[in-house]
Each structure stands twice: as C-alpha cells, then as structure tokens.
C-alpha cells in the first residue's frame, strides 16, 4: 500500500516519463526535418524507452494496490538550432530526470517504503547510463561540428540503434 503522498508523486512521474517521450519524439521530428535520419532514429528509440519507463511506474502503482490518474502532457519544445543542440537539450533533460528520481527516492526513504526504494534504485542506475550516453554523444557531435563528413558518420552510427526494452534487462 502506498501513502497518498507517494502515490501522487509516482503518478507525477508517470506523466513526466510520457512528457520525456514527447520531448524526444519532438527532437526526432526536428532531425527528420533536416534529413538526419540516423539522429531521428536515435530519438525515436529514446522516445520508446521513455514510454517503457512510464509503464514501469504505471505497473508498479497497480502492483501496490494504488491507482493511476493520467494528466495532460506538457507541450515539448520543438525549436532546435542544430544537431549538437539536440544532444545538449537531451543531456539537460536527463539531468532533470535524475533530480526528479532522487527527489522521489528521498520521499520513499522518509517513508521507509522499501519496495519503492528498490524500484527507484533501478531508475537511479538507469539514469547513470542515460546521462553518460547523452554526454558522450554530445561531446562527439560537438567535435564533428562544421565537418559534414564527420556528422554524416555519426548519423550512420545513430541509424544503427535498435530498441531494447530497458525494463526487461537487468
Ligand atoms: Fe525516463
């Protein structure tokens, strides 16, 4: 059984994960519009990952005999300058996600809600990977800036990303 407070906070995170999916789908659309189809592929898959995160919270709330209430999803930004801008925004977004997960973990710790602490531990580990992924790609893309051949190679690399449901791997 979840406290009212924790249930509300977890519901907010369901919404935020859906919003994250929207954020990345919007980035995919920008990449599509400037013919960076590999970048678009990367962000489409990222958007799918965020949906999987949302559903992990969603399923957990029901497992704990709680209830999910879906809210409106905020409009994502859609104006980007260039390829590195996408990854700079993505890296920033992931740092915000980490902050939110930490804040949730603080509440779970305060309430000594160990099952929720365990769930959030999974997300804490996932965030290390997400931040590192965005940061290392951002550095790579910044180095390639102004060099179309190098950018094309990164686009080719990003085209290879395939979706693996992060919630089914340990
Ligand atoms: Fe996420």
Describe it.
The chain has 170 residues and is mostly helical. It has 5 helices and no strands. The longest helix has 31 residues, at 114-144. It starts with a helix and ends in a 12-residue tail after the last helix. The protein binds fe (ii) ion.
- Discrete helix count: 5
Bound ligands, named by name, code or SMILES: fe (ii) ion
Low-confidence segments: none
Q: Please provide the count of β strands.
A: 0
Radius of gyration: 17 Å
Shape: elongated
The overall pLDDT average reads: 96
Order of helices and strands: HHHHH
Largest sheet at a glance? none
As a percent range, the share of strand residues is: under 5%
Alpha-carbon distance between the two ends: 25 Å
Helix content: over 70%
Oligomer: single chain
Structural class: mainly alpha
Write the layout of secondary structure elements.
Elements: H1 4-33, H2 37-63, H3 83-110, H4 114-144, H5 148-158
Helix pairs in contact: 1-2, 1-3, 2-5, 3-4
The structure holds fe (ii) ion (FE2).
